[in-house]
Amino acid sequence: MNKKIWLSSPHMGDEEFGFVKEAFDTNWIAPLGPNVDGFEHDLEQFTGSGFAAALSSGTAALHLALIILGVQAGDEVICQSFTFSATANPIVYLGATPIFIDSEPETWNMSPELLEQAIKDRIAKGKKPKAIIPVHLYGMPAHIEQIMAIAAHYDIPVIEDAAEALGTTIHGKNAGTFGLIGILSFNGNKIITTSGGGALISDNKEMVEKARFLSTQARDPAPHYQHSEIGYNYRMSNISAGIGRGQMKVISDRVSQRRKVYDRYVQHLSQLKGIRFLSEPDGYFSNRWLTAITIAPEQSGGVDREMVRKSLEKENIESRPLWKPMHLQPVFAGYPAYVNGISEDLFNNGLCLPSGSNLSDDELGSVIKQIENVLTSKSISI
Question: What CATH code is assigned to 15-251?
């Protein structure tokens, strides 16, 4: 069996251990501490956001963002359909209703046209949405400026899901800093990791302070344990934040390395019939967290996404279909959706390729060679 080539594995360096060792040496083995403060400062400086709260996951950050915006049972929240379920789950945690919006073809993210259509329709039905959650999928920026203009017109706050997009920019401005609140993730497969973790960022100081308060069990300032609100155990640990501080020292390198992986795939595979890549619109800069392709069987001689995926799997190479849209998920089947078929087509034909910043040249070459073999072979055995 060949050595496993992962889709996107953690990439550790030399800096992380120093911060973690300091936490051990000073006995800061707790959900708070100097590494948490330092990591939040690093995020603020890198993203250009005014304030950041380091949390246990990106899902926790989304949950708190919805609470801070006053989302309650019976409310409606507009959510991108083409995403991971963690974008939608916190809406349901609160007893609210997700309203799913399909994609546009240029970035694969929330369609501004369908967004406005949905807002008008929900208002006509007597339910003005309480928030909008667009996603920068696979590190590719959404048409966030158009989305923000629509949101401003209807006076609906935007929670920007940039879980996959740290280091992504739109006309020089960082993803996650357009909306009232931005969400980041540092899960083990993200462009940088804290093993698990996330962050809520905003220029609104009161909102970030509220997130910190709620994430530490909403303990009131009293000498005894007193609680006037329901709280959550969502704060990042000082150990995890130490890993994050080390990772932030190399974030620009990690983005550069992922973009080089994408460029090499394009160089070798873009001429194969049926293969298409997701290119950047003018002024958009993707961190290329994952390189994603679509495969059109009618152009590739009958080779489809599953044939390529299974061929890679036989060689111990991990790849993954694009996200199954939320409006097609059994758990969300009964919720309203405004669709155009784009995300369903992407799911049926799309594949994420190994994209880690720690991929060796030989590993990347092996992936490319296997895909070339499948796409050019006249007799394919899976």
Answer: 3.40.640.10
Residue 173 is encoded by which pair of tokens? 């401005």
Q: Where are the alpha helices (DSSP H) in the chain?
A: 15-25, 34-47, 58-68, 89-93, 112-124, 144-154, 205-215, 238-248, 251-269, 305-314, 342-349, 361-376
Determine the 3-state secondary structure of 159 from DSSP. strand
Find the mean pLDDT for residues 126-133: 98
Q: Where in the chain is the domain with CATH 3.40.640.10?
A: 15-251
Beta-carbon count within 10 A of 22 CB? 16
In the chain, residues under CATH classification 3.90.1150.10 are 253-376
Per DSSP, 257 falls in state: H
Which architecture does CATH list for 253-376?
A: Alpha-Beta Complex (3.90)
Partner residues linked to 169 by β-bridges = 174, 285
What crossing angle do the helices spanning 238-248 and 34-47 adopt, rounded to 10°?
40
Residue pointed to by tokens 């400026």? 145
In sequence order, what are the residues at sequence separation of 6 or more whose Cβ sits closer than 8 angstroms to the Cβ of residue 373?
A: 311
**CA-CA-CA-CA torsion for 265, 267, 271, 274, nearest 10 degrees?**
20
In b/e form, how buried is each residue of 96-128, taking b as 16+ CB within 10 angstroms? bbbbbbbbbeebbbbbbbbbbebbeebeeeeee
Cα 61 from chain centroid? 12
Which residues does residue 97 pair with via DSSP β-bridges, in sequence order? 76
Query: Cα-Cα-Cα-Cα dihedral of 276, 277, 282, 285, to 10°?
Result: 170
Average pLDDT, integer, range 38-59: 98
pLDDT single digits (tens) 270-312:
999 999 999 999 999 999 999 999 999 999 999 999 999 999 9
**pLDDT cut 70: percent of the chain above it:** 99
pLDDT at residue 222 tops 50 = yes
pTM: 0.96
Q: What phi and psi values does residue 77 have, to the nearest 5 degrees?
A: -130, 125
Residue 203 predicted with pLDDT over 80: yes
DSSP 327: G
How far from the centroid of its chain's Cα atoms is residue 346's Cα? 17
Summarize pLDDT for 161-188 with one digit per residue, the tens: 999 999 999 999 999 999 999 999 999 9
